[in-house]
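Format is sequence with structure; example below:
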Amino acid sequence: GDRSMLFRSILLAMRVYHEERSVDTKIREYLIDAEFLFEKRLYDSSIDLLKKAAVLADRFERRQQMHEILQMEAQIIKEKEIQSQVEKLQKNHEAQASVLLLLQEESKLTSERNIVFALTRKNMYAAGTDTTAEMPKWIDESPRLQPARSFSWNFQRLSAMGLYHTRNGSYEKARNCYTLLNELWNKHPDRKDSDRLLYKKMLANSINANQLLNNNTIVADLIQTLKNSACRTAEEEAEQFQTAAFAELMLLMNIGNWKNLKKTVQEIEKGLHTYKNKINKARELSFRINIGMAWFILHEWKEAEKWLTSIIDQPKTDHRQDIQHL
């Protein structure tokens, strides 16, 4: 009847809502609800929610949240269990120690990856600077996937290696790193959604490395993969637009696909207008100068002048001062 139809509609709406939330949000909500039930002394119900949270935390390698789950479980064991309290607490303690070990190891790699990023930027902006001695010892090892290690461990190392080799001009090595990273993500397709911002950043870096090697077919495939990736916010849409559209413009210019320039520029103009308050200023300037140069190559002087003049008319910022010096 009408009541059962309404009930099914409510369940469907709730399921859609839950599916659209991030993994981290789901785990956090399970923890909040479990803590509420714990305070009401509804220990079995609290444990049920903690188990659901633990499945997600383990599957997506959310170590810190897993540690919180185990800590709350220990509290319930102390309150609820009598017969086998010692054994269960011992098992819980071992699980916490294991999670903390992984958390420490992966946090160290995250810090080292951040150091690689900072040092490579330092090399870019300070000519003659050599920061090789400050890099992690493993940075120049032969890149490879290590199946015995976690997704996060492999991702952190290969990402840092790819960045390091790209900045050093070792584009083949960088390409190898990103090929392995693509393989890693394809082995964990669910991570493409749960960690989609990291996935899209990896795709952008992979596009860059392959463009530097003129691997145009691979670049085109990677761009399409990026464009097919789902977005959940306007900010994410803006980031995806500027990355994919700029890569398409560079690909067009690299292969001399001038017949599509007008259409490509129209799409870029539309995106720049749609996301005008969300586009990275440095990227916007890069769009303008490259479009101007493309029209210049085709001897379309008025179009070239329009795009190059638009750079001069822009308010001066700290971004891409080399371009602004036009």
